[in-house]
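Dear colleagues,

As part of the handover before I leave the project, I'm documenting each prediction I ran so the next person doesn't have to rerun anything. This entry is a single chain, and its sequence is reproduced below.
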Amino acid sequence: MARLPSNRMVLIEMRKMSCVAALLFFGVTSVSFPPIASAVPHEVINKESRPMKKLFEAPNEPASAQASDPGVTVAKYSYDPSGKTDPFKSFIAEQEAVEEKGVRKPRTYLETLDLSQLELIAIISGPKGNWAMVRDSKGVGHVIQKGTPIGTNSGTVYAVTEKEVIVREEFKDFRGTVQHRDIAKKLPSLE
């Protein structure tokens, strides 16, 4: 009667088989494991690489000598890529390396507030220009005029008219061109 292998030996052999399967999947052709005390040593056979066969041989005769008919001429073709698209160039527009301005730190308290946190409460017209007063969420009033930096998106006060204040913010679109966005803050109605 043949002796059955122990559970430990079966587990070791199963691990070896799973390792071999994984290595074969990645293209490894030979594997050797360290010998186990109770296991029988195995020999690993490495096949030597075979010499490469030449699939195509270069013709010894020039192309003009291969033409059998003297009346037939072989036209030479040369590719002219001028005016054609480059097949290896990306379709996505290349963005030019532009030095991006670093995000500058806000210099005033108004530059730390979002425009939605500010409420326009008064506009004063005068001979030297129009002034406006905005109130933040804490209830503190701030006087602004044309050119005052305001908002978290690097906005400046573009115009102060009789009924509204226009804040212009600069931003870059998906192409990298600088665009302007005007945001109007209007006086609340008296109703």
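The CA atoms of residues 72 and 109 lie 87 Å apart. DSSP finds two helices and seven strands in the chain.

All the best with the project,
I.
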